[in-house]
Amino acid sequence: MVPVPFIVLYLKRFASFLARNNSTASHYLDILFKRAREKAGPIEEFQWLGLMLFVAVPFPGTGAWTGAIIASILDMPFWSAVSANFCGVVLAGLLVNLLVNLGLKFAAITGFGLFIVSTFMWSILRIVKKSLNSSN
Question: Where does the sequence pass through the membrane (predicted)?
Answer without folding.
Answer: 48-71, 78-100, 106-128
